[in-house]
Amino acid sequence: MHYRHQLASGIDAPLQAGKIVCVGRNYAEHARELNNPIPGQPLLFIKPATAAVAMAARINLPVGGGECHHELEMALLIGNRLSIGAADTEIAAAVVGVGLALDLTLRDLQDSLKAQGQPWERAKSFDGACPLSNFVAVNDIDLQAMDLSLHRNGQLQQSGNSGDMLFPIKHLLREISAVFTLLPGDVVLTGTPAGVGPLHSGDRLSAKLGQILSINTEVN
User: Fold this and answer.
1) CATH at residue 89
2) For strand 136-137 and strand 147-152, is the pairing parallel, antiparallel, or unpaired?
3) Residue 185 in domain
4) Angular region, 66: left φ>0, alpha ψ -120 to 50, beta rest
């Protein structure tokens, strides 16, 4: 089934799904757990629109790709065009929804590609690599003070707060839009806290964003 952005009310958002801009190593503890250096500027990569699937549907893991890790992230839905030189007011107005995403990562493959100095797309941007929740309107929500958590089979796997980001949201959107023009329907993933790990067939997942959003799903 073709993916469409949905609002928390369950209705389709009037925005066509676009590119997904991701921020790597935006939580210091996650960088440390993978023995990666803490970046001096946002580490950016892109998933295509074809990576997006509904998180509420069962998650399909790629066959023969090695370990597929969960990386829970706060996701921002872009509603207005944003490009280089945007004013603070334009940056603030560009985000029209907030939700959760799983940045699915074929970790064995990513490690192999990194060791060879090659890009990560095969490990990060495959079809279905970005399960997305419904989006909640950002009215009166402090996006820089949001708890996010992921339980797998009843056990807490990931927990963090958006206040712990190395690069806060306004900074991220300014940096991103200076390189990639953001268009209505694009999504920005803001980084994952520590606790990433492999998914297995039959896993039950429960993700939560503050008091505004919770979602349950399963792995095929």
Assistant:
1) 3.90.850.10
2) unpaired
3) yes
4) left
